[in-house]
Write a structure and sequence with these properties.
The protein is α/β, with parallel strands linked by helices. It has helices at 14-24, 37-46, 69-75, 85-92, 119-127, 143-147, 161-171, 184-207, 211-232, 242-253, 258-267, 272-278, 284-298, 306-316, 321-329; strands spanning 7-10, 30-33, 63-66, 78-81, 103-106, 134-138, 152-158, 176-181. It has an eight-stranded mixed β-sheet, with helices on both faces. Helix 8 (184-207) runs antiparallel to helix 9. The radius of gyration is 19 Å and the shape is globular. The N and C termini lie far apart (47 Å). 50% of the residues are buried.
Length: 333
């Protein structure tokens, strides 16, 4: 792979900001698309994102900021999408330039609700991107710890190992260690599912369940994740690797986890609407819960998903969290 590939990040949230920071460690210039013009103007004046990871200061000479998605897509060879899954479809409607020869990387943590597809699948079906030109960035890695330059790990998945390694090299630094994988479908589903289980962990905490139950919940969650991913895409994978189990654990336990925070509020009695209004960031697991539930319902042989089903019942059917978790405790082992 050519080492002079141009990279661009699409998104303005904390994870997008963290990925731009990682790329700045290695590249002279990075394209950065943000739909919010006020945010880009602020960065140009103050050298940091006004709303997310504001402690991270950027060298403006490295940033090619734009509010035009087509300008940024034309500029770069590697397009890294870090837009919340609920808004990807609408943002991509603005994309009119041909991107069929680009490398598309998903750092989106969910399925596109309008199509029920993973981001990579959506680009393959609608933008003629071959699967060997599609990559996925998985954790375990919180944006807040990237900002603090605490040691973190990433898994870059792509069917083309050379492309995966090139992307991994662009993101690597003293505080970011990377590895590559060819499981693009499995890692992208894992990135989506871990947020649902983090909501479950948050609900349990909000309801007053302790560490003993949390450990049982996470133990069951990784097995449930394995069943779900195997149903969707059967291949040889080690579910205990950091891209699956590691990312699940940090999202389920960390104080930085917005999905755990969202679940905690639900467990404490907040309505979904009030919890969303109080949070300044999107809880991807909320949308992922519906997507995962619907995908399983479409299967002739449904996978056993007691945790996802419990979270779905609480978030989308208005069921009482305490009663649903009481029933869930009888299904776990």
């Amino acid at each position: 792979m050519a080492s002079n590939l141009k990279y661009a990040v699409f998104g303005g949230g904390s994870w997008a900001t963290a990925i731009v920071k990682m790329l700045c460690e290695n590249l002279d210039e990075i394209g950065w698309y943000m739909r919010n013009e006020q945010a880009t103007d602020y960065i140009k004046k103050h050298q940091h994102n006004p709303s997310y990871l504001s402690s991270v200061e950027f060298n403006l000479s490295q940033l090619k900021l734009s509010n035009d998605i087509n300008e940024t897509a034309t500029y770069a060879d590697v397009l890294i999408f870090v837009i919340p899954s609920a808004f990807v479809y609408k943002e991509l409607e603005k994309l009119t330039v041909d991107v069929s020869n680009k490398i598309i990387v998903s750092a989106v943590k969910g399925i596109i609700p309008e199509t029920g597809l993973l981001v990579g699948e959506h680009f393959h079906d609608n933008y003629n991107i071959p699967f060997e030109n599609i990559g996925v960035i998985a954790g375990p890695c919180h944006a807040e710890e990237v900002a603090l330059e605490r040691l973190s790990y990433l898994t870059i998945s792509c069917a083309d190992a050379a492309k995966a390694q090139a992307i991994a090299d662009a993101l690597s630094s003293d505080y970011i260690k990377t590895k590559i994988s060819d499981d693009i479908i499995g890692t992208e589903y894992a990135v989506m599912l871990k947020n649902i289980y983090a909501i479950a962990a948050g609900i349990a905490h909000g309801l007053g369940y302790g560490d003993n139950f949390q450990s049982v919940l996470m133990s069951n969650a990784i097995r449930e994740m394995k069943r779900f991913i195997k149903k969707m895409h059967k291949m040889k994978r080690n579910i205990n690797n950091s891209a699956y189990l590691g990312d699940l654990l940090v999202t389920g336990y960390s104080v930085f986890s917005r999905n755990r925070m969202f679940g905690n509020m639900i467990g404490k009695g907040y309505t979904v609407k009030s919890a969303m209004m109080e949070m300044s960031m999107v809880a991807e697991g909320y949308y992922a819960t519906k997507s995962a539930h619907l995908l399983n319902e479409k299967n002739e042989k449904k996978t056993k998903l007691p945790i996802i089903n419990a979270v779905y019942s609480i978030l989308y059917e208005g069921k009482d969290a305490r009663k649903e978790f009481k029933k869930l405790t009888e299904k776990l082992d």
